[in-house]
């Protein structure tokens, strides 16, 4: 409802600049409205919209980060379960891990398999009994 020559266009551009491009494109595809029947928002309404947008973007980024962490955790737990049922004593990841050479020398796939599939569970049970 705010055209290119409207006095509040600069404020609307400020609000739109905060929205990531992919979300803005998705919003433009979903929202199809008739501008002739829409009410023109006031400057106060644009300020409120800007505040709501910042909160929504912060929430969106937080949820995306939590989602990524949970996906990594699920993949690790699936790997641990699959390796604990395997008779091979080498821990095999479904996705490659980024490790330094020193870490690869100390925490080898065999050591990782022994820790994840055998020792860690027993150690956690022992600590639970002691506590």
UniProtKB/TrEMBL annotation:
Record keywords, A-Z: Membrane, Transmembrane, Transmembrane helix
Superkingdom of source: Eukaryota
GO cellular component labels: membrane
Q: What is its main location?
A: membrane
Listed InterPro entries? GPCR-associated_LMBR1 (IPR051584), LMBR1-like_membr_prot (IPR006876)
Q: How does it sit in the membrane?
A: Multi-pass membrane protein
- Write out the annotated subcellular location: Membrane
Q: Which family does it belong to?
A: Belongs to the LIMR family.
Matching entries from PANTHER family are given as: G-PROTEIN COUPLED RECEPTOR-ASSOCIATED PROTEIN LMBRD2
Q: What is this protein called?
A: LMBR1 domain-containing protein 2 homolog
This protein's species is Hirondellea gigas
The top of its lineage is:
Eukaryota, Metazoa, Ecdysozoa, Arthropoda, Crustacea
């Amino acid at each position: 409802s705010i055209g290119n020559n409207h006095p509040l266009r600069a404020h609307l551009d400020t609000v739109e600049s905060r929205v990531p491009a992919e979300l803005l494109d998705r919003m433009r595809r979903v929202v199809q409205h008739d501008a002739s029947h829409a009410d023109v928002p006031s400057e106060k309404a644009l300020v409120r919209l800007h505040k709501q947008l910042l909160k929504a973007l912060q929430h969106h980024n937080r949820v995306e980060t939590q989602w990524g962490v949970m996906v990594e955790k699920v993949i690790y737990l699936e790997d641990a379960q699959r390796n604990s049922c395997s008779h091979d004593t080498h821990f095999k990841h479904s996705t490659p891990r980024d490790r330094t050479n020193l870490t690869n020398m100390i925490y080898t796939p065999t050591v990782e398999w022994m820790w994840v599939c055998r020792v860690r569970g027993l150690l956690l049970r022992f600590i639970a009994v002691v506590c």
